[in-house]
Design goal:
14 helices; Acyl_transf_3_dom; DUF1624 domain-containing protein; 66% helix; membrane; globular; transmembrane; single chain; transmembrane helix; mainly alpha
Length: 382
């Protein structure tokens, strides 16, 4: 029997971060201004111009996206287990594992080609590079979708752990803290491919990793734990999410102010811009705390009025996240390569974003309707 376990606030929060990420991709592929924050090497420094302030503000918003994807992916697996009470544990693991494999394949054969169109369509003269271990040729990039798939696979394998909340929380905390514990002292230290894939963002040979598995797995595990409590105590968990989010934000701010553990890189000067310039590759514990805090506060706000116009708009995109992600990535990559090879300003970028959202809204609503009408459809793998 299928139980109707669906949380509109999650769909709305997921849709909101998808809309924000679409703007971030417009900045990268159309405006041609994009930030980068590696643990060593490339790290954007923002000036005091209006364009720099806009870039930093948009980057802070878009930094909510990747942690939100992994957190809600973990929650979604917990909600799926509660919804499909007719499935055995083995069937649930297989379904989750198949979805993880599909995400990895879609990353290699759909997502990465779109980024290549965008990169090769760039005529601004900017040359990608500067990350730890940067080399001449990349044959296996590990993107957000790749790591999302790998973490989905690992959650399928770790299903027995989910019955032990304290153990799950301890493993998640260890994974999230791992960049502050185990990154090499020097960016020129030799790093094997397994260590690169697991933790050390950068490049080894042809392997390029932006999203190492271990810290992002920790975020997914926290999301899974949150989803389990959401199933058991929905009202209390939704109400508590705001206070959990505020606590995460305050702890993240305190660690950033202290400037040592959890930062990976301390601010380079005393400006507010450097204080807010957090390391994402791999995600520092301060980054994770700050962005999960923002994600949970956003979830609570959108959960208050799920029938509001804003929430319904976000839900429309949030119920077809993968279709929306891939379609808009290709849309903006092609628009940027054809019409804006030399970039443009933020005002034009905003218009491109609005037009793109208008074009993709019918696609997302159609996919969501099809999934809702066919509970056993293969579309539920996406």
């Amino acid at each position: 029997m299928t139980q109707p376990v669906r949380v509109p606030g999650i769909d709305a929060a997921r849709g909101a971060i998808m809309l924000i990420m679409a703007m971030d991709h417009v900045n990268a592929l159309v405006v041609r201004r994009h930030s980068v924050e590696f643990w060593a090497g490339a790290w954007t420094r923002y000036g005091d111009t209006l364009a720099d302030r806009l870039q930093l503000g948009l980057r802070l918003l878009s930094d909510l996206c990747a942690p939100g994807f992994f957190f809600w992916m973990g929650s979604g697996i917990a909600l799926l287990a509660a919804r499909r009470t007719d499935w055995s544990a083995g069937r649930l693991r297989r379904h989750t594992a198949v979805r993880g494999v599909l995400l990895v394949l879609l990353s290699w054969f759909v997502e990465v080609p779109a980024w290549l169109v965008g990169i090769h369509g760039n005529r601004t003269g900017a040359v990608p590079g500067g990350w730890p271990g940067a080399g001449p040729a990349i044959w296996l990039p590990v993107t957000v979708l790749t790591t999302l798939g790998l973490c989905t696979l690992l959650l399928a394998l770790l299903r027995p752990l989910s019955r032990r909340p304290v153990a799950t929380a301890c493993v998640a905390a260890f994974c999230v803290s791992s960049p502050s514990l185990f990154l090499p002292d020097s960016p020129i230290s030799p790093v094997g491919m397994l260590a690169r894939l697991a933790l050390v963002a950068g490049q080894t040979g042809g392997l390029y990793v932006e999203y190492p598995v271990l810290p992002w797995l920790g975020i997914a595990l926290f999301g899974h734990l949150f989803g389990q409590y959401l199933v058991r105590h929905p009202d209390r968990t939704i109400q508590a999410s705001l206070w959990i989010g505020i606590a995460c934000l305050l702890l993240g701010l305190a660690l950033r102010w202290h400037g040592t553990f959890g930062n990976l890189r301390a601010p380079r000067d005393g400006s507010w811009r450097e204080f807010l310039n957090l390391v994402k590759y791999p995600p520092s514990p301060v980054f994770v705390l700050s962005m999960l805090g923002g994600t949970l506060c956003l979830f609570r706000c959108l959960s208050r009025a799920p029938q509001s116009r804003l929430a319904r708009l976000c839900i429309a995109f949030g119920r077809a996240p993968l279709a929306f992600y891939l379609a808009r990535l290709w849309l903006f990559a092609v628009i940027g390569a054809v019409f804006f090879p030399f970039g443009t300003d933020y005002a034009i970028g905003l218009l491109v974003w609005l037009a793109g959202m208008g074009l993709l809204y019918p696609l997302c609503t159609a996919v969501a309707r099809r999934r809702g009408a066919s509970p056993a459809s293969w579309l539920h793998l996406f």
